[in-house]
Hints:
The protein is an alpha+beta fold. 37% of the residues lie in helices and 21% in strands.
Amino acid sequence: MIPVVETKAVSDDVASAFDDFARAFEAFKDANDTRLSEIETRLTSDVVTDEKLARIDTALDDAKRRLDRLSLDRSRPPLGGTDAPRDPAQAEHKAAFHAYVRSGEATGLKRLEEKALSAGSGPDGGYLVPDNVEREVLRRLANVSPIRAISSVRVISGGQYKRAFSTTGPATGWVGETAARPQTASPTLSEMSFPAMELYAMPAATQTLLDDAVVDIESWIAEEVESAFAEQESAAFVNGDGVNKPKGFLTTDTVEEEIWEWGRLGTVNTGGASFPASNPSDVLVDLIYTLKSGYRQNASFVMNRKTQSAIRRFKDDNGAYLWSPPASIGQAATLMGFPVVEAEDMPDIALNACAIAFGGFKRGYLIVDRAGMRVLRDPYSAKPYVLFYTTKRVGGGVQDYAAIKLLKFAA
Length: 411
């Protein structure tokens, strides 16, 4: 009998979904062990066993998706019932924003933004959302945008963030207590720039929804733009070309690790278009130890779900699986003890593809958020719906080229 996870509808309970996922992985291990045993005894695996393993693998992915979705839903605040802001200015902005969103009355927001010398342009550029809405959107993005969750994030007030870095290291030296201080070599400084690009979403609502006083309109906007912003952000942080969008780490110049230099990401080659047939996990070990220990302490693997499916079958010399499911609800799966971050914008395993990244992304990748998110109400373009053209500005790019390494499927 095939030990596949039951196909019954999973309860909307996170603990139940976590148990389903754990049972799916146990079934996967049993089926894969059977396949490996057949290969050892007959030099090939049975077709039925391969098909069974593929079905369990799919069920395992489905269980993980359900667990991720339920965990995210649980972390969201209930619609409505948010506490009123204590600051009178915030309360006034909140009330004016509600009037604008629900009825289009912009007089209050115009007066507030003129008083604050805001750069808002009224009907052309929209109006700033209350601070709590912006915080809620960023909080939700941190939960659903995989690269944002592991990277450094800085809020800026201008159009771009600049930082200086030394390409030769700091100028230092050892001296005795009373010895002369010899002059050290001057550091070579360069500048890195991270411009913030405009990202938008346009949720729609009926006037009936807007007229319903029970609905917390701020939470509704945050929930509606969350998935749209997260999808676009995630793609840009991985593969963005830097033109009207952030610069993704995979579009950065690469070079083989043996001749690595600043300004490029180092790669470890697998030797072909797939993992080596013998000891396939050795290339993962090589990838891990290309990082210096300071980066490796807080490093993560980044790959898509299909690549993760391939490495779930790897074992160490003692027969233990290298990939482990989350130890508890809300935690990530691990590979060789390091967290695995699923980013569906990572490429599949193929010739010359950098399908796996490994590094300390907190030090390696920087995301900049320009303070202020705007909403422009449009009741005319899609009658009878009211559109809310919502924009935020975000940028990103590699800030430490020594902190991220890539596994390249190439000779």
